[in-house]
Amino acid sequence: MQEVSSNKCFGGCTKVFSHNSDELKCPMKFAVFIPSQAEQGKVPVLYWLSGLTCTEQNFTTKAGAQKVAADHGIMLVMPDTSPRGCNIEGEDDSYDFGSGAGFYVDATEEKWKTNYQMYSYITKELPALVNANFSVQVGNQSIFGHSMGGHGSLICFLKNPGMYKSVSAFAPICNPMNCPWGKKAFGGYLGTDQEKWKEYDACELAKSYSGPRCDILIDQGKSDNFFVDGQLLPDNFVNACKENPSCSVAVRMQEGYDHSYYFISTFVEDHIKHHAKYLKN
After folding, report:
1. Could you say which DSSP state residue 160 is in?
2. 223 φ/ψ angles, rounded to the nearest 5 degrees
3. Contacts within 8 Å (CB) and 24+ apart, 220-223
4. From 146, 151, 259, 275, active-site residue
5. Per-residue pLDDT averaged across 152-160, rounded?
């Protein structure tokens, strides 16, 4: 693990590291905000998953999350969204598949399965790296994300009962099996068998979730073009959660807000406070 950059920030430090990933078979970067409380003892961890086209930098530089995390003594970890530079034919051809669009699944199709193992990277390799190298409370972690990363945070939580203390999302792709983005990604990474798709669809996972009761927070902008165009489908997730008494979801529809980081920065304090309730309990 090599340090790429370090900037003092709200009493702590925002750093970027690179490492050679065993899961993805390529170099990867992730950003981390280390609050000053980590100098005195171990702190909880909150993982952030970004959306299509993003890197480890978008949330780190645009969301304004470090001050809130510093106030609560929470470490933030912000990984990249896909493998990079793997020399796979077509990996850079479109914004919504390949580079910058890993969709947080473990690919099974021959062309992609060697490198595109983002689900295992997020749930196994990255936490192991963080636990081994930073002053964190092992096992005391939560997860949230935006758009494709909102989808990622929901599935990581729902597929692993007890691994994360809490989950939230901004404008998540809630039902990828039934939207254009998801159909393209799942078809490319997982193949044509839609039974395999169900393993990474938050609506399907919510119906079968059997872990501790969870209170999921989602913010969705009413002026989000992708919401209007049917890419996000939060109502489908609400209905899926209604079928399972262990899943409680609050979807806050925010008048006038779009899909951008202006939206995220407006409500990021609410989300970190939501996670702090569980991480600091």
Report:
1. S
2. -100, 20
3. 220/170, 220/171, 220/251, 220/252, 220/253, 220/254, 221/171, 221/254, 221/256, 221/257, 221/258, 221/259, 221/263, 222/253, 222/254, 222/255, 222/256, 222/257, 223/255, 223/256, 223/257, 223/258
4. 259
5. 98
Identify residue 185 by its one-letter amino acid code.
A
What one-letter code names the amino acid at 211? G
**1: DSSP letter:** -
- Beta-bridge partners for 31: 16, 78
Among 224, 271, 274, 275, the one annotated catalytic: 224
Q: What is the rounded CA–CA span in Å between residue 163 and residue 266?
A: 28
Task: Locate 140 and state its tokens.
Answer: 């005391």
The residue annotated as part of the active site, out of 82, 142, 147, 168, is 147
Other CB atoms within a 10 A radius of the CB of residue 240 amount to 22
Residues 6+ apart with CB under 8 A from 109: 188, 189, 190, 191
147 is catalytic: yes
**What predicted TM-score, i.e. pTM, was given to this entire model?**
0.97
d(CA 68, CA 10): 9
Q: What is the pLDDT of residues 186-211, one digit of tens each?
A: 999 999 999 999 999 999 999 999 99
Is-catalytic flag, 259? yes
Measured distance CA(234)–CA(248) in Å, rounded: 13
Provide the CA 215 distance to its chain's centre, in angstroms.
17
In the chain, the amino acid numbered 246 is S
Active site residue 258: no
> With contact defined as beta carbons under 8 Å apart, do 183 and 176 qualify?
yes
Q: What is the CA radius of gyration of the chain?
A: 17
Contact 267, 254 (CB under 8 A): yes
